What does this fold into?
Amino acid sequence: MPVTPGSQKYQGESGRTRATDRAARRFAALPADFTFTVDVEEHGTPGRAAPATRRLLDLLDAAGARGTFFVLDAMVRQDPALVREVARRGHEVACHGYDHRPLADQGPATFRTGTLAARDRMADLLGAPPAGFRAPYFSLTPDAAWAPAILAEAGFAYSSSLLPAWSPLAGWPGAPRRPFLWPGGVLELPVPVGRVGPLLLPFLGGMYLRWLPPWRLSTLVRSWVAENGGGHLWSYCHPYDVDPGEGLVRRADAGLVGSVMLWLNRGPTVPRLEGLLRGRRSEPFATYLPALRAAATVWHPEPATGSLRAATVG
It folds into this structure.
């Protein structure tokens, strides 16, 4: 069948609309209120994060949604205009740290120095220090149990840094799945997870949102609704998740297989994010903090009896 001139774009837009409609149906059972979050960092090809971040800003504008953008200090230094634009367009700007390495690899002294520098640079740029922090790779693990005390010293109100499950990525099995308070007073917002057999997966973000087949996403939504005992729903993504034109980046922290997984299958990201936003109200974490803090209790983790660290990708 011949294709009429100009129809390719229409067919592409129509296909994306159908994919968004299907995603919206799969996510329909999730709560109406949530937070859309972005980890703003370069994936490896300099200069690509800024235009991809603006695609995400446009996606949120189209949905009438606001979110929280965790910005790595390197991006604050590299493109302060982008950070100011995120704030100007109504979103919360939070800290993704100074160095994109797992917390345990940084160690307490390096983490303290770098985090204070990143906080101060963001405060100088935007006129106020960030309230929130997210560790690279969600690497708040038993091996980095010292980090919340440093965040409290630095004046952060909350952290969004912990995966409350075993994972081939960084995780803290046995940690609460509801928002909770660290002994120093920092509110922790654990990654929402859904169950697949014995595993708990952070299905609303990153590689998981891109790679999980539609039927599995539907199952995870049902399991989250059935098993979640409370807590605030949120999603996460990166600029590279919506950048299908980027070539393969060989990342030393991911290995060849991990690098390929981070590169391929980026096409489904936008319609799935659009489907997640449809019919749902996204507000920054800062909007929900008073209610979340009022409902949270203090968690005193047991001392680690051994290393739970794992290889991290994504």
Q: What stands out?
A: The chain has eleven helices and eleven strands. The two ends are 42 Å apart (CA to CA).
